[in-house]
Design goal:
- It contains 14 helices and 14 strands.
- By secondary structure, it is an alpha/beta fold.
- The chain folds into 3 domains: 91 residues, Winged helix-like DNA-binding domain superfamily/Winged helix DNA-binding domain (Arc Repressor Mutant, subunit A, Orthogonal Bundle), CATH 1.10.10.10; 98 residues, Rossmann fold (3-Layer(aba) Sandwich), CATH 3.40.50; 95 residues, Rossmann fold, CATH 3.40.50.
- Helix 1 runs antiparallel to helix 14.
- The longest helix is centred in the first third of the chain and has 23 residues.
Length: 348
């Protein structure tokens, strides 16, 4: 895949110039529509702070030429990004990164309210009472919840920490339970296709997509690849770490520790990581926390199960020690598309 830098540099409203490699992550062989991949790419660039509020994006024509797609594809991506509050479109001026954090969620909520208002208006025109509308909506919601209980979703990744995060995301957005499979275990299975054949959808990450397809080529139509990355809060917290900070890393799996260290390198952060332990090793917290400023951990780790936690944790807090949760999650663009895929499968 060719990576082309956007030569028409983005103007920053405050001053300064940025160059973004827009083609990174755009892959026509994926089963995700290109406009969705563009949404994912813009979202990633915003989350990583390559672009900041007020920065101008390329025009539809410029970006279409750089990526090699139709202008309408870019227009569709920009339209959804605007609707979700990630960008602001100023007619006659350009498309800019939205000015406040959280606009994305607010934009979705506003759109949801518009759709609900439109639906209620349509039913009132058909002479249904508000009480009847409430009953019908409740019936459909209950039906949808029952359908989701029967929906079989499998998830495949290389570490249990990320799998738990993905599962929580899916429970929050679609109420879908996910059956988790670790990639190393799947590779050892004598017949992975028979193991996964009964699932309606198989979720994996872009990193492992090719490897998973190699294990279950006959189930390609069921495999969904999602882009994953640290959450914006995680990136913001990591950015505060100085080069003199003495950091410990505590994870469930060695692989998740590698992901944390790689992300620190990608963000060009240089804290002094002095130790890494696994929860299963049951490190003595008095010793583990004694000479560090902070600890990076995955969400959900119970420190109370570790030796000497009762005395170690208060001491650590007294000297301003901190814990940073490293949340590696499905990116918003992929999550929206995954919701759509689940909805499509449920309505067949």
């Amino acid at each position: 895949m060719d990576y082309i830098k956007h030569r028409n540099v983005i103007q920053n409203g405050r001053a300064g110039r940025h160059t973004v490699e827009w083609k990174i992550g755009i892959d026509r062989t994926r089963d995700v529509p290109v406009y969705r991949q563009i949404i994912e790419r813009v979202t990633r660039v915003v989350q990583s702070r390559e672009l900041k509020p007020g920065d101008r994006l390329p025009t539809e024509r410029e970006l279409a030429e750089e990526i090699g797609v139709a202008r309408g594809t870019i227009a569709k991506a920009y339209e959804e990004l605007e609707r979700d509050g990630i960008v602001d479109v100023i007619r006659g001026s350009g498309t800019y990164i939205a000015g406040t954090a959280g606009r994305s969620a607010a934009g979705r909520k506003e759109r949801a309210m518009e759709l609900i208002e439109s639906m209620i208006g349509g039913l009132l025109e058909l002479n249904f009472s508000l009480s009847e509308i409430r009953s019908y909506v409740l019936v459909k919601l209950l039906e949808k919840e029952e359908q989701l209980k029967e929906f079989n979703l499998a998830g495949i990744d290389c570490n249990p920490e990320a799998m738990a995060i993905y599962e929580n995301q899916l429970l929050y957005v679609s109420r879908s339970w996910m059956h988790k499979f670790l990639l190393p275990d799947l590779k050892k299975h004598p017949n992975p296709e028979s193991l996964l054949a009964g699932f309606d959808l198989i979720l994996t990450t872009s990193t492992h997509y090719r490897e998973v397809l190699g294990l279950i080529p006959g189930l390609k139509a069921k495999v969904f690849q999602a882009a994953v990355a640290p959450s914006p809060d995680t990136i913001a917290s990591l950015a505060t770490l100085g080069s003199t900070s003495r950091i410990a890393v505590l994870t469930i799996s060695p692989r998740f520790g590698e992901i944390i260290l790689r992300k620190l390198h990608e963000l060009q952060l240089t804290p002094n990581v002095v130790k890494h332990a696994l929860v299963s090793d049951k490190p003595d917290l008095l010793e583990f926390l004694a000479d560090v400023d902070g600890v990076i951990i995955p969400p959900g780790v119970s420190l109370e199960q570790l030796p000497n936690h009762r005395s170690a944790l208060p001491r650590f807090k007294e000297r301003s020690g901190w814990f940073l949760e490293f949340t590696h999650q499905i990116e918003r663009g992929s999550l929206i598309y995954l919701e759509e895929r689940i909805s499509e499968l449920l309505t067949r």
